[in-house]
Amino acid sequence: MEFDGKYVLISGASRGIGKATAMTFAEKGAQVGINFRSNREKAEKTLSELPGKGHQLFQNDISQESETKKLIDAFVSHYGRLDILVNNAGISIFHEIDKVDFDHWTHAWQSTFQINLFAVANLCYWASKAMMKTGGGRIVNVSSRGAFRGEPTKPAYGASKAALNAMSQSLAKKLAPHNIYIGVVAPGFTETEMAAETLTPTERESLLRESPFQRMAQPKEVAHAILFLASEGAEYTSGTIIDVNGASYLRS
Ligand SMILES: NC(=O)c1ccc[n+]([C@@H]2O[C@H](COP(=O)([O-])OP(=O)(O)OC[C@H]3O[C@@H](n4cnc5c(N)ncnc54)[C@H](OP(=O)(O)O)[C@@H]3O)[C@@H](O)[C@H]2O)c1
Q1: Of 110, 150, 219, 243, which one has the greatest count of Cβ atoms within 10 A?
Q2: For 233, how many CA atoms within 13 A lie in the half-sphere containing its CB?
Q3: pTM above 0.85, yes or no
Q4: Ligand 1 pocket residue status of 87, Cβ below 6 Å
Q5: Could you give the number of structural domains in the chain?
Q6: Per-residue model confidence as pLDDT tens digits over 47-105
Q7: Does 79 qualify as catalytic in the annotation?
Q8: Spacing, Cα 90 to ligand 1 middle (Å)
Q9: In what order do the strands lie in the sheet with 241-244?
């Protein structure tokens, strides 16, 4: 898979899966726009680590509607076109129905959907307008295994990712005639820096047992699936959801 001459925008690319995706696209010749919300130091570090030239930071809080248009406008004004958008940024908040008060409950639902679904819908809106002007493009949305198997401690997270899958499939149908192809990647637990820092040894052990591989996904493995969906020749996969969960949850 080569991406020479391609301009790629990745939301939430300063760390975790987004960073690994940015590194992999850059290794394959793409010029990458790294969107982040607040942690400039981390974003600058990621930018400095990317191989190749012409990469750029874009600081926009995509939970704000107006920022989604600003982000796409800034990217297109910088590079002249947008070939590939990866909607990676997402959040998850614990809100167990039998433990939290109502304010916590409503806050969790609103803020989770604002980023995991509405921000993605808004970025798809502005990105598809830009892509139509240049003859097409590709969008890859990062979902989760939680969309399929249930998330008892974070129900808004599971619901937002299930809605993201449905939205992606609707848009795949609508945008194919415009040469815009949509793919979805649904990772299981992935060993990001945050996972390494926040998991207790017991939690880690139990997560490892979920997969017959006896390990979590590496961010690079998720990036590999994202690049496949965005690659030349993968057009007819539009509407597909690729699981990257180490056979921990198999759906029919
Ligand atoms: N890690 C897993 O185990 C796992 C499993 C399944 C699915 N996923 C999905 O994979 C995606 C990436 O997860 P991750 O664990 O790699 O993420 P992460 O390490 O928590 O990184 C989140 C990134 O998103 C950015 N971000 C958060 N809110 C934003 C906003 N409002 N506007 C712009 N950027 C924002 C952060 O920027 P700042 O640092 O500046 O805030 C950061 O770059 C998410 O959609 C997640 O749901 C992850």
Answers
A1: 219
A2: 5
A3: yes
A4: no
A5: 1
A6: 999 999 999 999 999 999 999 999 999 999 999 999 999 999 999 999 999 999 999 99
A7: no
A8: 4
A9: 56-59, 31-36, 7-10, 84-87, 137-142, 180-187, 241-244
CATH number at residue 108: 3.40.50.720
Find the domain containing 19 and state its range: 7-192+220-244
Per-residue pLDDT of 8-44, as tens digits, reads 999 999 999 999 999 999 999 999 999 999 999 999 9
List 157, 181, 236, 249, catalytic entry:
157
At how many degrees (to 10) do helices 155-175 and 102-113 cross?
Answer: 20
Assess if residue 211 is contained within a domain. no
The distance from CA 121 to its chain's CA centroid, rounded to whole angstroms, is 12
User: In terms of DSSP H, where are the helices of 139-232?
Assistant: 146-149, 155-175, 193-198, 201-208, 219-229
Q: How many CB atoms lie within 10 A of CB 169?
A: 16
Is the residue at 252 inside a domain? no
